[in-house]
């Protein structure tokens, strides 16, 4: 008997949830507040499991409720339940945040790696004796050619890697290295 009562209570809550979403579509802010009270802790738990950070989970939950408010008119009970609709909005928000965060992490790592490359190349260049023939000849090269050659010979990068690091077309990098080496040979001869 208790299981039957519990099921009836759950069915009533889900029916109320659908009614509240429809009320949100009509601009009823108290309906949104009731949805937040009813579903907030459950949704926060889902977001925490997906994002593993409370600050991001709270942001995702807030964005979810903003989307529920804005998209309430799109809810169609004949296509699925209210709880599933809201959970899908939260899930999509969490996935978007995960993609954005992984992109930002990759971008930060790439920037850090480029800075480290620049430091290694400039350190090697700086250690050359100011009066050496190689330093004098490298100084005569245009900066892109000099950097491409140093990355190739100091760091051992391929043309493709240099192209990616300098964010320059592959053909240009190949030309810089080839012409730079020709100029160095002529200068050193």
From TrEMBL:
Domain of life: Bacteria
Domain RNA polymerase sigma-70 region: 38-103
InterPro entries: RNA_pol_sigma-70-like, RNA_pol_sigma-70_dom, RNA_pol_sigma70_r2, RNA_pol_sigma70_r4_t2, RNA_pol_sigma_r2, RNA_pol_sigma_r3/r4-like, WH-like_DNA-bd_sf
Pfam name, any one: Sigma70_r2
Transmembrane segments: none
Keyword set, alphabetical order: Sigma factor, Transcription, Transcription regulation
Positions of the RNA polymerase sigma factor 70 region 4 type domain: 134-184
Family that this chain belongs to: Belongs to the sigma-70 factor family. ECF subfamily.
Protein name per Swiss-Prot or TrEMBL: Sigma-70 family RNA polymerase sigma factor
Origin species: Tritonibacter scottomollicae
